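User: Can you recover a sequence for this backbone? Please restate the input before giving your answer.

Assistant: Of course. Working from this structure:
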């Protein structure tokens, strides 16, 4: 049985790129959608914030020559592309989904409004929250923390390419130390890069636990929803 009634999933854009490392791997998107679809079927009200790194990383060299605000707006638009792709994949699984964007583009997405998002969740729809916060200089991690607090999520579950929180990048360092549980303060004081400092501070100040887990392990999304000790817990 699921432990959480309502949770917010933060999925990195890079994961949607699959092995290509850039753009959308449709097969990978559908694999993830099949896993996510199990949550509303089991009564878990589910919101998702998708990153845009699968597109933005590909233009990062060019973005360095751009105004930071312009580059950040491009990143926000990339999250809308990902959200629309994920919505399509979920609906092919028979699960209703709505894209809500912090940047208004009514032809393709609803504008984000907290009460409307809550109504969708209570009706059993998956809510895909795109467009970041609509403000530059804020990451999608911060957007995920903000939206999780706004909708009253019981957990912020962050899916990544690694098994959880480490003292350094385990993909680069074989001696990286894994933390099954760690405090917000330790994450901040040690400068661990699992989430940006603004997002961690928001979660700390409001007592929102964060579960960091490997999205590439099949079944992990459901295990997190069921309260299993998957990955690392920040609290």
């Amino acid at each position: 049985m699921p432990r959480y009634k309502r949770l917010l999933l933060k999925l990195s854009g890079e994961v949607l790129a699959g092995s290509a490392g850039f753009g959308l791997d449709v097969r990978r998107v559908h694999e993830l959608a099949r896993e996510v679809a199990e949550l509303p079927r089991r009564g878990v009200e589910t919101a998702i914030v998708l990153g845009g790194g699968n597109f933005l990383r590909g233009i990062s060299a060019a973005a360095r020559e751009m105004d930071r605000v312009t580059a950040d707006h491009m990143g926000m638009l990339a999250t809308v592309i990902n959200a629309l792709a994920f919505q399509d994949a979920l609906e092919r699984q028979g699960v209703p989904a709505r894209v809500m964007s912090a940047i208004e583009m009514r032809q393709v997405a609803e504008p984000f409004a907290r009460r409307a998002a809550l109504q969708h969740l209570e009706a059993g729809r998956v809510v895909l929250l795109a467009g970041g916060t609509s403000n530059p200089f804020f990451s999608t991690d911060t957007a995920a923390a903000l939206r999780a607090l706004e909708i009253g999520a019981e957990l912020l579950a962050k899916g990544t390419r690694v098994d959880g929180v480490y003292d350094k990048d385990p993909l680069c360092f074989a001696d990286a130390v894994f933390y099954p549980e760690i405090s917000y303060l330790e994450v901040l004081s040690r400068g661990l890069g699992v989430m940006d400092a603004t997002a961690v501070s928001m979660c700390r100040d409001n007592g929102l636990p964060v579960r960091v887990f490997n999205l590439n392990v099949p079944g992990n999304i459901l295990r997190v929803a069921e309260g299993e000790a998957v990955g690392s817990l920040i609290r």
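That completes the design. The chain has one domain: 6-234.
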